[in-house]
Design brief:
Number of helices: 31
Number of domains: 3
Shape: globular
Bound molecules: ligand MGD, molybdenum atom
Structural class: alpha/beta
Cofactor: Mo-bis(molybdopterin guanine dinucleotide); [4Fe-4S] cluster
Radius of gyration: 25 Å
Distance between the termini: 16 Å
CATH class of the largest domain: Alpha Beta
GO molecular function, one term: molybdenum ion binding
Number of strands: 33
Helix content: 25-40%
Family: Belongs to the prokaryotic molybdopterin-containing oxidoreductase family.
Strand order of the largest sheet: 5-4-17-16-15-6
Protein name: FdhF/YdeP family oxidoreductase
CATH architecture of the largest domain: 3-Layer(aba) Sandwich
Keywords: 4Fe-4S, Iron, Iron-sulfur, Metal-binding, Molybdenum, Oxidoreductase
CATH topology of the largest domain: Rossmann fold
Length: 764
């Protein structure tokens, strides 16, 4: 068997990215995508449907990346999955196909209804589709039987009527992709700084003296961020990385827009310091850094910002006492880093006049995720690194509008001010009780208490834990409605009434009775800006997301004081309604329609950035955190033995979440060097030696789950890689079936996708 790894020796970016961009275009018929790319992330252009990284504040001729090109090319693909395609394939047959094949069938073209007798989806008229969904919803014995899932790809103009629909129907059951993603960040920042969003803008990168990057692989998932890190590194800023894997994309980066770097393949060094913390070890590492900072202060170093701490924070004494009580031995054991390494990181932090901390899924998808991010906030507060130029915290969001969706009300835990705003503007009393989050929805689907599922985008069951079980349970639902651009596995398990409703993509022209429409999105630095699709729609039968959502609502709830039809046909109406609801709930939406027309849109002010702390104490809150003894891995090892490994599921270069791309050259994960197969497991030499396994060997992976249920993924090839002992890494979504829904973050309930206890056995 061929070894799938060819180690990547060049800088990330550079020619590889240019080739990758060209491949994206070639594999999908270049023309439509080529029309879109020059307008990507440009003022008044199209917002990239890839990640939520902010657009350049300066005018840049090119402000998209290779990964954006793949996202766009896959949306503008010439391939189609029309009704004839569905007539020729039963769902049983389609279920045999891989994620990449399902995606590869192309764009959906017509509304489809599941027909159980033939086990196929068949075309249905739009009007009938709306009526069928409405009947099924109205016949539920309680609105709480329905869940309204949202993936973070839809615009504000679709998300707002969607949450209004759920609440007017009578439920806050709005699980969303944030529950799977940055929920832990929102909670930790909310409890400590009073606002669950980034406190910095893209300009702040120009003023930082140190940037700490935790649990993030920007070379693959936020490539435009590498440009900012590169510029920072070139002007002498320290870039300190905490990541158990050596990610080549974080080591050095050749700017594809620099001819010299591209031609030589030698880019700029990115990480000045790289710490291979153990998976789940960041809380200990951050505790250690705080200890080192406090020790430096005690030694007379004058490193704390006393004025800031006194004036702006609360809880310092309890925090400091708790940090000092955590023994260095435990800090070292839990983090996998030596005291000297941690002191080195602390020294960088102490020396820098302004520090930024960014993070992504490496911090959020753990049992102690919320606590870990609170520990990061603690560290930043020690030197007043919030609310001044070049300093602050930034959770780097995933989906391009996941932050905007939350801002306009998509959440299972709405704030009372938001509900009051809905009541004031629309005159109904929205439900106050919190609804189901994603894991609770999964459990409800499995235990039969949920009867209807609606999805505004996304691939709910494949993106969440215990996929095979959840998919099976979805077939027992009374109703499934998926608003989608492409086919995916969740669609292949319809309920009794099963609807698949195809929508326009963001790059496509949206003509409504009110004229051509544009939508708006919010990036991870809180810039709200317009996105105007101009491409030819993939099919004449496609409807826009706002139209589909509002017609579903109108059919279900009838005519009411809520102007559904206007919101579905003239999005300025929606924006003005958002502005009205936001007036007493979210700052910064004044004159939404006027200001969205500005070239780069407008910034939603962040109270913490202004050192206005909307917390219980009215101050920025230090959190006293002990290092946990009771952890997923300790419990699993107590139950299953010391051979249990910790699996972190991550993304490869050629995928967008559950969408796996096929690359004609066999490239799977460029920077990590993987080719031709996704069935690999990255493992350290020491772990292999301990378990009597060897590089290249095939293994079966068994979950060591707390609920004792057997879960298994077979035939994975071991790849020796520089990762800490006891930790292994593999790709989602393939390995998600190993994850029990009981593995989740305390507080945020985000699945612990990066902390999955597993056992390896030589393949049978
Ligand atoms: N091209 C592309 N772009 C994307 C996406 C995509 O799939 N493809 N997805 C989008 C979405 S929704 C999101 S949320 C983001 C995700 O962006 P990332 O968070 O960068 O994605 P992951 O692959 O989950 O990578 C997590 C990183 O965390 C590290 N890690 C794992 N466990 C730990 C740990 O315990 N501690 C630390 N310090 N590090 C750890 C891994 O080694 C890896 O480098 O990307 C967005 N952008
Ligand atoms: N094991 C493991 N699981 C994870 C993660 C992990 O790191 N490890 N990461 C988690 C994270 S961070 C996230 S955000 C979730 C993602 O979870 P989701 O957001 O649910 O999943 P996606 O794969 O992004 O959704 C892809 C589908 O969205 C639809 N789609 C694409 N574009 C559009 C559009 O413009 N409109 C509409 N209506 N539909 C569209 C297509 O049908 C496509 O198949 O996955 C989570 N799951
Ligand atoms: Mo995400």
């Amino acid at each position: 068997m061929q070894h799938p790894i060819r180690f990547y020796k060049k800088s990330a970016g550079g020619l590889g990215s240019l080739h990758g961009t060209a491949k994206a275009l070639r594999s999908n018929g270049a023309l439509p995508a080529l029309k879109v790319l020059p307008r990507l992330n440009q003022p008044l252009g199209v917002d990239c449907p890839g990640c939520a990284y902010p657009d350049s504040p300066k005018d840049k001729a090119v402000d998209f990346c290779e990964q954006g090109a793949w996202a766009v090319a896959h949306e503008t693909t010439p391939r189609r999955a029309p009704p004839e395609f569905f007539a020729a394939h039963t769902l049983a047959q389609l279920r045999q196909r891989s994620e990449a094949e399902l995606e590869g069938f192309g764009r959906l073209t017509a509304p489809m209804l599941y027909d159980g007798a033939s086990d196929t989806y068949r075309e249905v008229a739009w009007e009938q589709a709306f009526q069928l969904a409405a009947q099924a919803l109205r016949s539920l014995d309680s609105p709480q039987r329905a869940v309204f899932y949202a993936s973070g790809r839809s615009s504000n103009e679709a998300a707002f009527p969607y949450q209004l629909f759920a609440r007017a129907f009578g439920t806050n059951n709005m699980p969303d992709s944030s529950n799977y993603c940055h929920e832990s960040s929102g909670m930790a920042l909310g409890s400590t700084l009073g606002v669950g969003k980034a406190t910095i803008t893209r300009e702040d990168f120009e003023h930082a003296e140190a940037i700490f990057v935790f649990g993030q692989n920007p070379g693959t998932n936020h490539p435009r961020m590498l440009g900012d890190l590169r510029e920072a590194a070139l002007r002498g800023c320290r870039v300190v990385v905490f990541n158990p894997m050596i990610e080549p994309g974080l080591r050095s980066f050749a700017d594809p827009q620099s001819a010299k770097e591209t031609l030589t393949g030698h880019g700029a060094r990115i990480a000045t310091d790289y710490f291979q913390v153990r998976v789940g070890g960041d809380l200990a590492a951050l505790t250690g850094m705080a200890k080192a900072v406090l020790e430096a202060e005690a030694a007379g170093g004058k490193v704390l910002d006393h004025e800031f701490i006194a004036r702006h924070t609360s809880g310092f004494e309890a925090f400091a006492a708790t940090v000092q009580a955590q023994p260095w031995e435990q800090v070292e054991a839990d983090s996998g880093l030596s005291r000297a390494q941690i002191e080195q990181a602390a020294a960088v932090y102490i020396t820098a006049k302004a520090s930024i901390a960014t993070w992504c899924m490496g911090l959020t998808q753990h049992e102690y995720a919320v606590e870990t991010i609170q520990a990061l906030v603690n560290l930043m507060l020690l030197r007043g690194n919030v609310g001044r130029p070049g300093a602050g915290l930034m959770p780097v969001r995933g989906h391009s509008n996941v932050q905007g969706d939350r801002t306009v009300g998509v959440t299972n835990r709405p704030k009372q001010e938001w509900l009051d705003g809905l009541q004031r503007v629309f005159g109904f009393t929205p439900p106050a009780a919190h609804g189901l989050d994603a894991v609770a929805a999964i459990k409800g689907i499995m235990d039969g208490s949920v009867h209807a599922f609606l999805g505004l985008g996304g691939n709910f069951a494949v993106a969440g834990p215990d996929t095979p079980r959840v998919l099976q349970a979805m077939e027992k639902l009374q109703l499934t409605v998926h608003i989608a651009t492409k086919l995916n596995r969740t669609h292949l398990h319809p309920g009794r009434v099963g609807l698949l409703l195809p929508c326009l993509g963001r790059t496509e022209r949206d003509e409504q009775p009110g004229g051509p429409q544009f939508v708006s999105v919010e990036d991870t630095a809180s810039m709200v800006h317009a996105s105007t699709g101009r491409g030819e729609p993939a099919s004449a039968k496609l409807r826009s997301e706002p139209h589909i959502v509002t017609e579903l609502a109108r059919a279900t709830l009838g005519e009411s004081a809520i102007p559904w039809q206007a919101m579905g046909s003239e999005y300025a109406t929606t924006r003005s309604l958002i502005e009205q609801v936001a007036r007493t709930a979210v700052a910064g939406f004044e004159q939404y329609n006027e200001r969205i027309a500005q070239p780069r849109g407008f910034y939603l002010p962040n109270s913490a950035r202004n050192r206005d702390w909307r917390t219980a104490s009215g101050k920025a809150q230090f959190t006293a955190l002990e290092l946990p003894r009771d952890t997923i891995m300790r419990r699993a090892r107590a139950q299953y033995g010391e051979q249990v490994l910790c699996l972190a599921t991550v993304r490869a270069h050629r995928q967008y979440n559950t969408t796996v791309y096929r690359d004609s050259t066999g490239e799977v994960d460029r920077y990590r060097g993987v080719h031709h197969t996704r069935k690999v497991l990255f493992i350290g030499a020491a772990s292999m030696a301990k378990l009597g396994l060897r590089d290249g060997q095939l293994v079966d992976i068994h979950a060591a789950a707390p609920d004792g249920i057997a879960r298994q993924c077979n035939g994975y090839q071991l790849v020796q890689y520089d990762v800490p002992e006891g930790d292994v890494f593999g790709y989602f979504p393939e390995l998600t079936p190993l994850i029990s829904p009981d593995l989740m973050a305390r507080g945020s309930k985000t699945p612990a996708f990066k902390e999955v206890p597993v056992l390896l056995k030589p393949a049978e």
